[in-house]
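Q: For a teaching handout, I want to show students what a protein-ligand complex looks like in token form. Below are the inputs, and the small molecule is ribulose-5-phosphate. Please produce the holo structure.
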Amino acid sequence: MTQDELKQAVARVARDYVADRLPVGGILGVGTGSTANFFIDEIAKIRDRIGGTVASSEATARRLQGHGIRVLDLNDVDAMGIYVDGADEIDASMAMIKGGGGALTREKIVAAVAETFVCICDASKRVPVMGRFPLPVEVIPMSRAHVGRELEKLGGTPKLREGFVTDNGNLILDVHGLSIIDPVGLEDHINQIVGVVTNGLFARRGADVLLLAAPQGVETYTR
Ligand code: 5RP
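A: Here is the structure, written as tokens, with ribulose-5-phosphate included.
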């Protein structure tokens, strides 16, 4: 199976998960990225059951609307049953690196509101120790150099994501060379650097459910 076929397979399982567990008319959070895009195409088939969605990026909002799926402002939502999104890496504690698509801040906000975070990815994303995938950090533009120096003190090599501006008008530093043995501690530490909007470690609020696509089928893990 190709990686895209694995992503499609897990997207179908996630669609069924939503159809089974989200109350009819409930609110669904929707993530960003290629796996999330397959998921969006799948939930178009059950759109009449979904009361509305909250998108974690402008790109996701456009794709949802293209399928005729209602997209709501998070501020108009009191509760969200399920949030479905991909990940760049996920470890055994269900902590993740996210933000390969640059949507980490909105993703973290949507995840904070959702009752259940369902991570969907292919088996290549599951790792014993995170950090091989460069950790994205969203920064206020004027703080780029300062934050970069602080990240170097942590042993990482930050690289500006060239030509990229987030949906919030900020920049991304991708931090290479980290070996993340304390995801919660590092998430907290980086978020304390002045000028950081947030970083792509989702350890304090990790996934509750992991749907992991492997060639032999989609496996389900719960926290
Ligand atoms: C976007 C994300 C994505 O979930 C992550 O990058 C995985 O993307 P893909 O499904 O394309 O592999 O965090 O900001």
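A: Two things your students might notice: The mean pLDDT is 98. The radius of gyration is 17 Å.
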